[in-house]
Amino acid sequence: MTGPGTRPGTYAPRPGAASLPSMVLSQAGLEVRLVLRNGEQLLLTVVIPLLVLVVFGSVEVLDLGSRAERLGFLVPGVVALAVMSTAFTGLAIGTGFERRYGALKRLGASPLPRSGLLMAKGLAVLAVEALQLVLLGAVALALGWDPDGSVVAALALVLSGTAAFAALGLLMAGTLRAEATLAAANLVYLLLLVSGGIAVPLDRFPDAARPVLEALPAGALAEGLRDVLRDGAGLPLAPVLVLLGWAAVAGALTARTFRWE
Amino acid sequence: MSQPQAVEVVDLVKAYDGKVAVDGLSATVPAGAITAVLGPNGAGKTTTVETCEGYRRPDAGTVRVLGFDPWRDARRLRPRVGVMLQSGGVYPGVKAVEMLRHVASLHAHPLDVGELVERLGLGSAGGTPYRRLSGGQQQRLSLAMAVVGRPEIVFLDEPTAGLDPQARRATWELVEDLRRDGVTVVLTTHFMDEAERLADQVVVVDHGKVVAVGTPRELMAAGAQGTLSFRATAGLDVDGLAAAVPGASRVDEVSPGRYVVQGQVDARLLAAVTAWCADRDVMPEGLAVGQRSLEDVFLELTGSELRA
Fold first, then answer.
1. Please, which of A12, A14, A254, B65 could form a disulfide with B109 given CB 3.0 to 4.6 Å?
2. In A, which residues are within 8 Å of B150 by CB distance?
3. How far apart are CA B108 and CA B111, in angstroms?
4. Pairing state of beta strands B81-84 and B153-157?
5. Which member of B83, B94, B108 has the closest CB to residue A34?
6. What pLDDT, in 10s, does the model give residues B2-13?
7. What is the pLDDT, as a whole number, of residue B225?
8. What's the confidence (pLDDT) of residue A78?
9. What is the mean pLDDT of residues B137-157?
10. What residues of chain B lie within 8 A of the CB of A102, using their CB?
11. What's the pLDDT tens digit per position in B179-234?
């Protein structure tokens, strides 16, 4: 009987890896599709930032001045929240479960090198962030947001923030059990959401707490974006250095501790 | 002429937290053949296979796969090796065909994905997320992922565990086609019939060591104390029969009129027994040759007590 794939020679060895760029693009494409298909993750990455933007932007919850002032404060915070949700929470939970289900282990036996997998994860995070930022930006503009400052400086902050959050997310996903990562990543998301800089201005916190909050990645990213998008500053060095510092420390720890199985 | 070896393992030792999983294991896998690794749970099969796949670094000993050190030359070896893990290995939310297409895209000359999907009966499940596939479908997807890159060697860890008979047969046929086309196959299994049917070489592993190697036929024949049983009139001279038959080590009348000859049971022994009976005008009835199965051999080698 000859069925599909039974001809002699069908399975004759012809091994070889695809080119690194095509492997990385294929992997990144798969990861983006998996994120966009995951309802829980979309809730964190899209629905919650949008809700924060729309609710706090149109309703006077905190005393933040006029609608334009409110949006000027709020939009950079929501952008920071969106970056955090994808680069930290989403990446940590997703990677944790990939580890748990052996998907990372199986990929480890494929021609895709680990560096290629990390590149793909980075690309996938940036692609999802681009979608988030376009969506949030459009809604913010529709609500009457009037941004200032340099797009390049804002993008530099977003990239530094992504590096910091992604390194922290992978640090968590590579060491904790998947369920622990799920719980901890959500908890950290919530803590960073309320710990200032995103929806609550840092000057509402006690003076003693401010330097700490500014040194946390969420506060640094939100305040840095505010300096640029609201106050028209050039690239603010302090927040960028804070974010790159987190990226370097967490990245080094991740490289030492990450377990693929 | 000796066959080239696809895998050479010499004195492999691997322990986890002080617990020894592989304890000085040595084995070779001939290229282009099917090698079945048999052993009870916890015998060290998966650890050995995963060391060959480059997942584990040996504590001692050497491992060469296609001439490469799987740990140090991983980058060069990986494209040439197909891997089927014992379980998992796939994103829970990914669709079956999507995953297979993805693995294919990581290789330079992959198989035709559509054909492979159809061959393994995954066509109807192609759009189903991995987590909603049946266990058998997950196994077949995992097998497809191991072969889609057109590897030189595949390592299949329990490829037919949990499969229904049709899916098992489809898997066996694919494995035989791999051998036909020159792919080296290493598989672990608990199924003796699988090893008997597929394997050119069987490696029996226990307590982290190789306890027997050979073709299924060699293993079944090695030191074989076969049996020939028959019925005849009661009270025959069993000692005389044993002395008269070359290859018989003993003869018993296990119950009146029921005889069992033990020894090297072959056609010559059978002829000698019937000739001895003919000389005494005795008609042996219900002649039955008891053949050892690979399962008997396996249980003799590894003991029959349950393993955790």
1. A14
2. 11-15
3. 10
4. parallel
5. B94
6. 568 999 999 999
7. 67
8. 94
9. 96
10. 85, 87-90
11. 999 999 999 998 888 998 999 999 999 999 999 999 988 887 765 567 888 999 99
Distance from CA of B90 to the nearest CA of A (A): 5
Please report which confidence band the pLDDT of residue B305 belongs to, taking 50, 70 and 90 as the band edges: low
DSSP for B221-287 reads HTT--EEEEEE--TT--HHHHHHHSTTEEEEEEEETTEEEEEE--SHHHHHHHHHHHHHTT---EEE
> Of the given ranges (A50-54, A215-219, B70-74, B287-291), which has the lowest mean pLDDT?
B287-291
Average pLDDT over residues B101-117: 96
b (16+ CB within 10 A) / e for B208-217: bbbebbbebe
Which residue in chain B has the smallest CA separation from A114?
A: B75
Question: Which of B54, B185, B166, B59 minimizes the C-alpha distance to B121?
Answer: B166
DSSP SS3 for A126: helix
Which residues in chain B touch residue A3, judged by CB atoms under 8 angstroms apart?
Answer: 118-119
Do the strands B184-189 and B226-231 form a parallel or antiparallel pair, or are they unpaired? unpaired
Q: What is the pLDDT of residue B1?
A: 43
pLDDT tens track for B21-48: 999 999 999 999 999 999 988 899 999 9
Q: Cβ-count burial of A9 within 10 angstroms (0-12 exposed, 13-18 middle, 19+ buried)?
A: exposed
From B102, B115, B151, residue closest to A30, measured CB to CB: B102
- Tell me the one-letter amino acid at B292: R
- Bridge partners of residue B69, in order along the sequence: none
What confidence tier does A40 reach under pLDDT thresholds 50, 70, 90? confident
Contact predicate B78/A91, CB 8 Å:
no
Residues forming beta bridges with residue B65, ordered by sequence position: B7, B68
DSSP string of chain B, one letter each residue: -PPPEEEEEEEEEEEETTEEEEEEEEEEEETTSEEEEE--TTSSHHHHHHHHTTSS--SEEEEEETTB-TTTSHHHHGGGEEEE-SS--S-TTSBHHHHHHHHHHTBSS---HHHHHHHTT-GGGTTSBGGGS-HHHHHHHHHHHHHTT--SEEEEESTTTT--HHHHHHHHHHHHHHHHTT-EEEEEES-HHHHHHH-SEEEEEETTEEEEEE-HHHHHHTT--EEEEEE--TT--HHHHHHHSTTEEEEEEEETTEEEEEE--SHHHHHHHHHHHHHTT---EEEEEE---HHHHHHHHH-SS---
pTM of the model: 0.84
Contact B289, B265 (CB under 8 A): yes
**Which DSSP category does A17 fall into?**
B
Number of helices (H), then strands (E), belonging to chain A: the values are 12, 0
* Mean pLDDT, residues A79-100: 94
